[in-house]
Write a structure and sequence with these properties.
- By secondary structure, the protein is an alpha/beta fold.
- The chain is built from eight helices and 14 strands.
- Helices cover about 45% and strands about 25% of the residues.
- It is elongated, with a radius of gyration of 18 Å.
- Keywords: DNA-binding, Phosphoprotein, Transcription, Transcription regulation, Two-component regulatory system.
- Pfam families: Response_reg (PF00072), Trans_reg_C (PF00486).
Length: about 230
């Protein structure tokens, strides 16, 4: 049985989420503040953690940073509409998704199942991906070029994984956007994708102006590998 931690200070919302998760067969733990959450996360292991951004004694970003220091467990943020723009920071910390209040519980359940399926597939596959002199270790989400680790944001890492998952095949811009949607939500569109491709190339290419790893196929999209 998969274990999920829900950190939500609104007890009515937390109760509704807990009931729905248990109906779906998940073992669910609830925390209503940051203090209890730090203790719970430190002494237990979970398959997925849901974090409210605003808490009475802290915030979800601090918890996400704490979580990422000890594990790569998937994290989903719950956020009010006026906090939505701040979730970009959470995504860059390594969160997997976010959902805006008010939300439909069925949508949250659907997102959770999708993330868990993706993590399950990743854990059942080889941990290492090799592209040129780039090594991607999916077990710890690290990217190494030669012998030097390349620091990537969560979105850059998922973008690289999306591209390398289809090595040798041309991916259209829409296909790439679909591959990273669950990480970036509405914050990445066709225009900003160009910016993220550029940033990624600057980090992994020997000559970003003449890319050999992420190649542009004019009029069609991008390709990694031959």
């Amino acid at each position: 049985m998969e274990k999920i931690l829900v950190v939500e200070d609104d007890k009515t919302i937390a109760m509704g989420i807990e009931y729905s998760l248990k109906q779906e067969g998940f073992k669910t733990t609830i925390c209503h503040n940051a203090g209890d959450s730090f203790k719970t996360i430190n002494s237990n292991e979970y398959d997925l953690i849901i974090l409210d951004v605003s808490l009475p004694d802290g915030n979800g970003f601090e918890l996400c940073q704490f979580i990422r220091k000890k594990s790569d467990v998937p994290v989903v943020f719950l956020t009010a509409c006026d906090e939505e723009v701040n979730v970009v920071m959470g995504l860059d910390m390594g969160a997997d998704d976010y959902i805006t209040k008010p939300f439909r519980v069925r949508e949250l359940i659907s997102r959770i199942k999708s993330i868990l399926r993706r993590y399950s597939k990743k854990s059942n596959s080889s941990d290492l991906i090799f592209i040129g002199d780039i090594t991607i270790n999916t077990a710890n989400a690290k990217v190494v070029k030669g012998e030097r680790e390349i620091p990537l944001t969560a979105l850059e890492y998922k973008l690289l994984l999306t591209l390398t998952s289809y090595e040798g095949k041309i991916l259209s811009r829409n296909q790439i956007l679909e591959g990273i949607w669950d990480v970036a939500g509405d914050f990445v569109n066709d225009n900003t994708l160009t910016v993220y491709i550029k940033r990624l190339r600057e980090k992994i290419e020997d000559d970003p102006q003449n890319p050999q790893i992420i190649k542009t196929i004019r009029g069609l999209g991008y390709k990694v590998g031959e």
